[in-house]
């Protein structure tokens, strides 16, 4: 997907006043598996660190504009979000 087309992408995840929760991270992972690229938006009164969201979801942060971020699936990611028990 070209960078210009991110503008046409509709947000599929909305972060509310509770902020980013573990359930939301799981939903981001699920949507990335299905869609490969997703857009996340958050409320003005909510603090969100886009780098932390991407790291928690095991995704690549592509773009941040205002209260919107774009994530893509990390290539070569292991199933399970990258956390393994050895």
TrEMBL record:
<dbReference type="InterPro" id="IPR051925">
    <property type="entry name" value="RNA-binding_domain"/>
</dbReference>
<feature type="domain" description="CRM">
    <location>
        <begin position="1"/>
        <end position="84"/>
    </location>
</feature>
<dbReference type="InterPro" id="IPR035920">
    <property type="entry name" value="YhbY-like_sf"/>
</dbReference>
<dbReference type="Pfam" id="PF01985">
    <property type="entry name" value="CRS1_YhbY"/>
</dbReference>
<keyword id="KW-0694">RNA-binding</keyword>
<protein>
    <submittedName>
        <fullName>YhbY family RNA-binding protein</fullName>
    </submittedName>
</protein>
<dbReference type="InterPro" id="IPR001890">
    <property type="entry name" value="RNA-binding_CRM"/>
</dbReference>
């Amino acid at each position: 997907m070209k960078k210009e087309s991110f503008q046409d992408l509709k947000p599929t995840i909305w972060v509310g006043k509770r902020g980013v929760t573990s359930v939301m991270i799981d939903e981001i992972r699920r949507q990335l598996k299905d869609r490969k690229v997703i857009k996340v938006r958050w409320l003005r009164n909510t603090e969100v660190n886009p780098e932390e969201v991407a790291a928690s979801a095991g995704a690549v942060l592509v773009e941040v504009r205002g209260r919107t971020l774009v994530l893509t699936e990390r290539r070569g990611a292991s199933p399970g979000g990258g956390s393994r028990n050895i």
